[in-house]
Amino acid sequence: MKALGLLLLTLTMNAYAQTAPPTVAEAQEFMNKAEVQFAELVVKVNRATWVQETYITDDTEAIAADAIDQSTAIITDLVEHAKRFDGLTMPPELARKFMLLKLSLTAPAPKDPALRKEMTTIASRSIRNMARASIAGRTASVWDITAIEKIMAHSRDPEELKEL
């Protein structure tokens, strides 16, 4: 019986929280929790993308895409929940934090996890593609940076070096 009463109290409080106008204290509490989550995400994504950019492989691309996907999902959720505080008059510092949270989402992510994963995978793949260069007149149409470095280390042809 006690558990049922607690459940009803929780449901009532949740319903009240959804209909009651938000307060500055609630906005501050939300932002404090969001900042903790955001700090953890930034470290995880930065580590994954650094490894991907340093060791350009299919595996590091997948690791980075996964980290970015998780980050995008959480930030999208935070931005969605932050909309509850739109229109609330807040201290300038808190209002700025809400603005920066909304701007931190670099691209609107689909709500469907499969579509969001596809979007982040494509974005991660673009990093690998930028690390490769097309070199006209070569037997291979795409060269990675290591192949270019080897050619540059031995070539003394100014035109070839300019092309690279």
Can you tell me about this structure?
The protein is an all-alpha fold and 164 residues long. It is built from seven helices and two strands, in the order αααααββαα. The protein has helices at residues 2-19, 24-54, 58-82, 92-103, 113-130, 145-154, 158-163; strands at residues 133-134, 142-143. Strands 1-2 form a two-stranded antiparallel sheet. β1 and β2 form a beta hairpin. α2 packs antiparallel against α3. The radius of gyration is 24 Å and the shape is elongated. It starts with a helix and ends with a helix. The relative contact order is 0.10. Residues 1-13 have low confidence and may be disordered.
Number of strands: 2
Amount of helix:
over 70%
Along the chain, the helix and strand elements come as HHHHHEEHH
Biggest sheet features: 2 strands, antiparallel
Structural class designation = mainly alpha
How far is the first residue's CA from the last residue's CA? 76 Å
Q: Given the C-alpha coordinates, what overall shape results?
A: elongated
- Radius of gyration, whole Å: 24 Å
Low-confidence stretches: 1-13
Helices, by number, come to: 7
Determine the strand fraction and express it as a percent band. under 5%
